[in-house]
Amino acid sequence: QVQLVESGGGLVQPGGSLRLSCVASGSIVSGNSMGWYRQAPGKQRELVAEIFSGGTTSYLDYVKGRFAISRDNAKNTVYLQMNSLKPEDTAVYYCHVRVFRSAQDYWGQGTQVTVSS
Questions:
Q1: Which residue pairs, CB below 8 angstroms and at least 24 apart, start in 62-71?
Q2: How far apart are CA 87 and CA 66, in angstroms?
Q3: Tens digit of pLDDT for each residue in 31-82?
Q4: In sequence order, which residues have a C-beta less than 8 Å from that of residue 108 and are 6 or more positions away?
Q5: How far apart, in whole angstroms, are the C-alpha atoms of residue 67 and residue 49?
Q6: Which of 2, 37, 61, 77 is 20 to 30 A from 22 via CA?
Q7: How confident is the model at residue 4 (pLDDT cuts 50, 70, 90)?
Q8: Are 13 and 58 in contact (CB under 8 A)?
């Protein structure tokens, strides 16, 4: 099965940038989405950004214009470029893969992003 490993989280000052990476083991069949969720303490997990195998992207309204999701199918990797970070972006970010043919979901362990001065 698919295993997801995130990296790139850390501590950054407001206005700074981070780039998250998520590498999926093996190959992912066509007809899928790769994305990022986040969960802050005391809040529900929310979808931040998603990119489908055909290239279509979706974003949480709050991050539009600041975050950009991309994928490199040759490396089975999805990225989340986060710019103009705000303290409200502080959360654990989880990589997610949805395979539509089998209706299966895969989750990474999460990586902490902290935006603070």
A1: 62/88, 63/89, 69/35, 69/36, 71/34
A2: 13
A3: 899 999 999 999 999 999 999 988 999 999 999 999 999 999 889 999 999 9
A4: 4, 5, 6, 22, 94, 95, 96
A5: 8
A6: 61
A7: very high
A8: no
